[in-house]
């Protein structure tokens, strides 16, 4: 019996540096695959979303982040960004509510600007060091993209978007996603930046060499949020 959704899926989190790097690799090196996949958000639910998810019969994978893992991620992301010629600015998160940017994504998606929103939000967070859980930041990004600032910045208060968020969290549960970046192609699943080439080959049926990238010396320094619980980072 075929899956109800045979479209390749990419689960992304605007919080995760690894998800950001996988996004850049997919868009920059394999744009044809990036255009063919369904982009699905992954985020740690707040208390209200967690309650709605439980009431719908779902659950969210949660594993606490250890200090050792946090320090490793700092070192690892520094290596990976250097390889790609990227210069990150580590954000500092204070009491983040991840529904703010991830429910805003649905507003952009409905306007046909889902990818553009993801791209701009990643840049704001990982290259400009901005707090994307700040509603004012969301309003500014929305205005830049020609989206309704009030709707984007207040997406977290929209009941319909909350219900869509619950459905998205149920999709995470159904697909067995435990961290990001996570890619699904039919029955094949791939987790992590290093599995992206395998996902691309699965989708495209080719083993094309990736576009080479330049190296750059950079020092991202220390930031507040070194990844997310239960994921690749």
UniProtKB/TrEMBL annotation:
Protein name: 2-hydroxychromene-2-carboxylate isomerase
Pfam families membership: DSBA
Origin superkingdom: Bacteria
Catalytic activity: 2-hydroxychromene-2-carboxylate = (3E)-4-(2-hydroxyphenyl)-2-oxobut-3-enoate
Name of the top EC class for this enzyme: isomerase
Domain DSBA-like thioredoxin: 11-201
Family stated for the protein in its record: Belongs to the GST superfamily. NadH family.
Entry-linked InterPro entries: DSBA-like_thioredoxin_dom, GST_Kappa/NadH, HCCAis_GSTk, Thioredoxin-like_sf
Gene Ontology biological process terms from the UniProt entry: glutathione metabolic process
EC number, UniProt record: 5.99.1.4
Organism, as annotated: Saccharopolyspora elongata
């Amino acid at each position: 019996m075929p899956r109800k959704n045979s479209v390749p899926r990419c689960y992304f989190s605007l919080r995760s540096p690894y998800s950001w790097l996988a996004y850049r690799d997919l868009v920059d090196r394999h744009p044809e695959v990036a255009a063919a996949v369904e982009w699905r958000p992954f985020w740690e639910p707040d208390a209200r979303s967690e309650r709605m998810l439980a009431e719908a019969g779902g659950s969210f994978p949660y594993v606490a982040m250890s200090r050792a893992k946090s320090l490793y991620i700092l070192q690892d992301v520094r290596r990976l960004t250097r390889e790609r010629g990227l210069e990150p600015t580590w954000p500092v998160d204070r009491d983040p509510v991840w529904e703010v940017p991830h429910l805003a994504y649905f507003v952009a998606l409905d306007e046909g600007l889902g990818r553009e929103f993801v791209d701009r939000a990643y840049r704001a967070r990982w290259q400009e060091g901005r707090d994307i859980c700040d509603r004012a930041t969301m309003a500014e990004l929305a205005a830049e993209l020609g989206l309704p600032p009030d709707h984007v910045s207040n997406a977290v208060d929209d009941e319909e978007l909350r219900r869509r968020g619950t459905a998205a969290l149920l999709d995470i549960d159904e697909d067995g996603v435990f961290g990001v970046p996570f890619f699904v192609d039919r029955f094949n699943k791939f987790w992590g930046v290093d599995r992206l080439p395998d996902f691309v080959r699965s989708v495209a049926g080719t083993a094309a060499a990736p576009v080479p990238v330049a190296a750059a010396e950079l020092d991202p320094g220390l930031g507040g949020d070194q990844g997310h619980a239960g994921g690749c980072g």
